[in-house]
Design goal:
Strand order of the largest sheet: 2-1-6-5-7
Largest sheet: 5 strands, parallel
CATH class of the largest domain: Alpha Beta
CATH superfamily of the largest domain: SPOUT methyltransferase, trefoil knot domain
Order of helices and strands: EHEEEHEHEHEHEEH
Strand content: 15-25%
CATH architecture of the largest domain: 3-Layer(aba) Sandwich
Helix content: 25-40%
Number of domains: 2
Shape: elongated
Distance between the termini: 33 Å
Number of helices: 6
Structural class: alpha/beta
Number of strands: 9
């Protein structure tokens, strides 16, 4: 899988893309990530990528021409999605990650200022995606979240791939509580059923806990 990030701040990704499982996945070529700066495609001497919005208003908008030129400079793989990270897009969910991991190429456009010229969304972008119902200073943060969520589903990223099957949202429910040693910590005990060795009882307890936790915290999922 190839991931292209169109960003005014490529340095934002330097550490995250070299860290933890995501960094190992990239180092092992499970996914390749490329950074492209729209500023490199400007034609004026000041390398300007933003301008005032027509009709007035507060703030500046990213100009369309550097973004189009940046995306059009990239190779085009057979199955690709051009994604603009925006609060107006569809929310990130596990089902979205499962779909995107099947693509050959993801191009992520990170907005800044007050966003991008609408012609980018109308004539270039194939999908708009949101991290949540809130506004951030830039699109780099949701882009990084999307990359992490997708790449971790690629074979070889997570050591024990079976663990991906037993996580929050995998079956429409939140995850069950988990414990490790010591069995008693400051008087708080690990539930006896988890120490019983009875796998049937453990599975039933975990399912019950998933339903209870989801009902309490995210009833909208039920």
């Amino acid at each position: 899988m190839r991931i292209d990030i169109v960003t005014l701040f490529p340095e934002f990704f330097t550490s995250p893309l070299q860290t933890s499982l995501l960094g190992k996945a990239i180092a092992n070529q499970i996914a390749e990530v490329h950074l492209t700066n729209p500023r490199d495609f400007t034609t004026d001497k000041h390398h300007r990528v933003d301008d005032e919005p027509y009709g007035g208003g507060v703030g500046m908008l990213m100009k369309p021409d550097p973004i189009f030129a940046a995306v059009e400079s990239l190779p085009s793989l057979p199955k690709r999605e051009i994604i603009y990270l925006t609060p107006q897009g569809e929310p990130m969910k596990q089902e979205l990650f499962k779909e995107l991991v099947t693509y050959d190429q993801l191009i992520l456009i990170c907005g800044s200022y007050e966003g991008v010229d609408e012609r980018v969304c109308e004539h270039l972008v194939t999908r708009e995606v949101s991290l949540g119902d809130f506004v951030l200073t830039c699109g780099e943060i949701p882009a990084l979240a999307l990359i992490n969520g997708v790449v971790r589903l690629r074979p070889g990223t997570v050591g024990k791939e079976d663990s991906l099957k037993f996580e929050s949202f995998e079956d429409g429910l939140l995850d069950y509580p988990q414990y490790t040693r010591p069995p008693i910590f400051r008087g708080w005990e690990v539930p006896e059923v988890l120490r019983s060795g009875n796998h049937k009882l453990i599975a039933a307890w975990r399912k019950e806990q998933q339903l209870l936790r989801t009902r309490q915290r995210r009833p909208d999922l039920l």
